[in-house]
Amino acid sequence: MSLAPAAGLEDPATLADVLRLAGSPGFDRIQDQIRRTGGCSDPIHLRGATVTRDRATGHVLHAYDTDNEPGGRLRIACGNRRASRCPACAWTYAGDTYHLIRAGLVGDPAKGTPPTIRNHPRVFATLTAPSFGPVHNRPGTRPCRCGIRHAEDAPELGTPLDPDTYDYAGAVLWNNHASDLWRYFTIYLRREIAKRAGLTQKEAHAQSRVAFGKVAEYQKRGAVHFHAVIRFDGPDGPDSPPPAWATLDLLTDAIHAAAARVAVDIPPAGDQPARTLAWGTQLDVRTIRAFGDGEDITEQAVASYVAKYATKAAETTGTVDRRIGNKEALTLLDVPEHPRRLIETCLDLHALYPDRKLRDWAHMLGFRGHFSTKSRRYSTTLGALRQTRADYRATQQREALGLPAPDAPEATTLTLAHWTYAGHGHSPGESWLAGNIRRDIQLNRETAREALQDQPDWEERAA
């Protein structure tokens, strides 16, 4: 790698540390470790050793000890899904989410879904929060209520027209109960499906299943909303076709009816009145097309959209991506006024609703749920995808060392390992190096993907 002056080396401390690294005897191995993490921004450091022995003879077939590594430690990827924390690991997480959602749309036997699910009724639904007060927005070709036509990146978008009358308490309490609203929605959806099919819930359950995969996203105003793929399956899940009555129209009507029924009551507390939380009126349900046909809601578009937002959180609204201990920290962190007031409201309401843990989730503007969830039979799991990747790398390592696979008939090996935590993160120079490695890896992958997409056309022309 060239160490000529480049972007990010304007800081003298960073430049000095890069030069120190370049002159160190373990520089090549440090580069290799960082590359193996994908350019992780905050790697975990481990100390330890592994020994692989022949069970019969006790002969050592392979041994590894971090004492032989630069600094006496091994770096592994942090695995953080937040793009604001680690772009490299978030990129991997987004890729896994993409394949998970796509497998539930186009089918992938290796991921638990047959190709026939393309014939199942499927929709892409967006459920939003209600209004907590008018905000600056871009309503089509019309000017905002303030009389200004805001630019797409205008900082005032999503902020209240009148902050003093905006229902900040309602906004953070709605975020805090959003997962409960979704849970009740899934319950009512099955009831509404049975009602429209003219069946009891037990009969409807015996004939069909409803599968979903969803992701949470923050609107500019700081309110969470959910995007969900909702799919009709047969009685045996994705492996069986849905009954004739399980149509797109029935599913769409049931979604609207279920969303309208959801209500979560909050009792009064202190100076806060009793509230009934519900979904907003902006409910969007669109059919997912198996192929383009001029539609923009295609399988590819949906999977890409969900994956994009799986790595983002409340920091997209101007808040921070870690917990905040007190209001004074908001000034030091230079949090903009609107998210600052939402965070302050969380801290103020914590004493009134201690079971809701609003202080712990103030940096998330009250939301405490999972960003990406799915039903059991939608498709594979993120854990299974990670395990497949780990198994692949382990197989590569065994082949390179000439060791038999653990499940091979001739396998007679025993591996013993011991690891301890030794810290995390990078020095300034290592951080610069990791950023460059991450960008190189992503560029190479994007180039390879574009070449793969162009390959069928090239073969057709060659033929």
Automatic annotation (TrEMBL):
Entry-linked InterPro entries: RepSA (IPR046828), RepSA_streptomyces (IPR048241)
Pfam families: RepSA
Protein name: Replication initiation protein
Source organism per UniProt: Streptomyces phaeofaciens
Taxonomic path: Bacteria, Bacillati, Actinomycetota, Actinomycetes, Kitasatosporales
